[in-house]
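nitric oxide dioxygenase, Streptomyces olivaceoviridis. Tokens?
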Amino acid sequence: MDAPTTPPGENAVSGGGGWFMPRQGASEPLPNGDQGASEESLRVPVRRSAPVAEEGSPDALLIRRTMTEIGPDADRATSYFYALLFVRHPELRSLFPAAMDTQRDRLLKALLTAAEHLDNTPVLVDYLRNLGRGHRKYGTRAEHYPAVGECLIGALSKYAATVWNPETEAAWVRAYTTMSQVMIDAAAADELRAPAWWQAQIVTHDLRTPDVAILTVRPDQPYPFLAGQYASVETPWWPRVWRPYSFASAPRSDGLLTFHVKAVPAGWVSKALVHRARPGDVIRLGPPTGSMTVDHTTDSGLLCLGGGTGIAPIKALVEDIAGRGERRPVEVFYGARTDHDLYDIDTMLRLQQRHPWLSVRPVIDQRTHLRFPEAIRAYGPWAEYDAYLSGPPGMIRSGIGILRDIGIPVGRIRHDAVEERLVGAG
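Tokens:
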């Protein structure tokens, strides 16, 4: 699983992972004479159940205690989970990339997210529904979930052995049963209205810098999305390896989609899209997701902070406001390390010329004593604005703190980044 808000490349989070997402590193060999929970006790049924856990419930406490215990051995526990899964259920191996080390560790993030929100049903259910819909592109089916639950509990029972007991196992079975059913139901409902993925042909490939390209693609069928959202992308060169990227424009009448991609040293997908992809190549798109969208029920101003290729969804938000004929103030701070990194500044300045309600301010770290996004303190006041952030994780973390310090309530700060999100993670 990914965390509740999940973005792309430098402007999103890598992979839309989950219970089925591979981790980085090889699997730990499955030892002989495994003394974990018995295989029979690990057969997790998939059925409807009550809310995952009430606030402060024994189940929530037991599950959080398990996660605390497993923390120091998280990598080994995750490796062991995949060893169990592939040994006991080899038919599931084909759902994963051939090179397992191309993926980040999604399982631990999923567990931490579930544990954190276990007794916050609305947040967790919304998260799980998005996750279930996103799993369709991997070929995940309802009958796969019991096998995953079986091996998940097998790994937990081994690496949280000092706190593991029948009550803890029962709590995990109940929680996983409920969570997996939410995902299954969401996938089934989504199957009635949307494909698992879209084929999209690259129409243009504009190499703006040696490592940043702007791609425009044409989906093979209508692709509904909202400005500020993102999609997972799979290339033909790395099958079953998906990386999310934000849409760099609002929905267009011609149906074309635009992405900004930065190639990074360890980024197989990003390197392929920047250096290998050409017009005519066909990629695959997962369903749109993300919550960094404009609230059109208010006329509040927008304070937008975009760092690096994080300017992509900010540009889409500006186009969304313009396309609806709104004239609310929009303040964009475009952060970069050098002038060279402001690869799309001309586009943003042209938008500023056309729309008097839009202000675009480039902030270049090498030219100012204030690092982005600290520079926003010199302007304002911003207390009545809705804030939008997109960019590297460090920028998101510091930006949230600064925005709260200057009086913007946390409920009016929107972003699609997670704590572990790495710049250009793929």
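Confidence is low (pLDDT under 50) at residues 1-50, 418-425.
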